[in-house]
Amino acid sequence: MTDNRDAGSRIKVGVSACLLGEPVRYDGQHKHLPLLTQDLARYFDFVPTCPEVGAGLGVPRRPVRLVGSAAAPRVVDVDDASRDYTTRLAAYATRRLPELHDLCGYIFIRDSPSCGLFDVKVYPDNGDPGPHSGRGVFAAALTARWPLLPVEEAGRLEDPQRRENFVTRVLATKDWQDLCRRGLCADGLIGLHARYQDTLMVQAPQACAALGQLLATAGHQDPREVGARYVAGLMQALQQQATRGVQTVPTAAAIARLAANPPPITSA
Q1: What is each CA distance from 116 to 7, 24, 265, in whole angstroms?
Q2: Run of H or E residues at 107
Q3: Average pLDDT over residues 56-83
Q4: β-bridge mates for residue 122, sequence order
Q5: Long-range contacts of range 246-249, CB-CB < 8 Å, 24 or more positions apart?
Q6: Which of 60, 177, 191, 251 would you label with 123, given CA atoms 20 to 30 Å apart?
Q7: In this predicted structure, what is the pLDDT of residue 10?
Q8: Diameter of the chain by CA atoms?
Q9: pLDDT by residue (tens digit) across 80-128?
Q10: What are phi and psi of 107, to 5 degrees?
Q11: Beta-bridge mates of residue 76
């Protein structure tokens, strides 16, 4: 299949800065993940962020944790809950997120009170370990602002199938962004569907059929309305994982397609 992405365009993926080897953690260390810098960096232009450094907490710094409710936790010093950094981190997210508007995906570090995506421990106000888990405050702000943006946690990308799934969703987001820049139209939406139809047939055949039906009358409807419904359905369907043992050639082919025409990569 011919790759019709905008020539020379970059595929930008946000990432927790410590995963690229930047010594920004509270103890001055990093969590370098070679999978990113030695493998995925061939395809993606990584845009690093460390919310805690960005909010002015410094390196090294006192460790923090989440306390309160899982839905709206506060970020406080591990040993002194009167040191509350919630407002500073929220203000940083407000400043930083508009700068990330053109990302096609984001990779977070696990267990971080600012960047953890899944099952970050949330402590009750009395300081004892609680039964609840939540999401880091920066990760929560980003996913609330862009609920369709492909996101994943670094450790989970070690799974080849999950990694292929994430890459495919990133590519689909890039294709959608390029289509929007060129101008939404029925033919463009049909072409987007054709690009991912094989993958959808493997991962979500019912959704594939429904999306095809949506596009059957696209030429007679407002392309912006159809496009909004289509991309929401596409990203939800692509997020589904094929059953173990099912051939995943379509997603592997997506990586091969990108490798054949890689975007420019900035220097480290």
Answers
A1: 34, 15, 26
A2: strand 105-108
A3: 95
A4: 66, 132
A5: 246/202, 247/202, 248/161, 248/164, 248/202
A6: 60
A7: 78
A8: 62
A9: 999 999 999 999 999 999 999 999 999 999 999 999 999 999 998 876 6
A10: -115, 120
A11: 65, 84
- Decide if 105 contacts 166 (C-beta within 8 A): yes
Residues linked to residue 153 through DSSP beta bridges, in sequence order: 108
The DSSP symbol for 245 reads: T
pLDDT tens figures, 181-202: 999 999 999 999 999 999 999 9
- Please state, in angstroms and rounded to a whole number, the distance separating the CA atoms of residues 179 and 181: 5
Token pair of 119, please?
């099952």
Could you give the CA distance from residue 224 to residue 240 in angstroms, rounded to a whole number? 25
Its pTM stands at 0.87
**Contact residues for 242 (Cβ-Cβ < 8 A; gap 6+):** 161, 202, 203, 248, 251
Tokens representing residue 200 in the block? 């959808």
* Dihedral (Cα; 79, 80, 83, 89), 10-degree rounding: 30
CA distance 138 to 115: 6
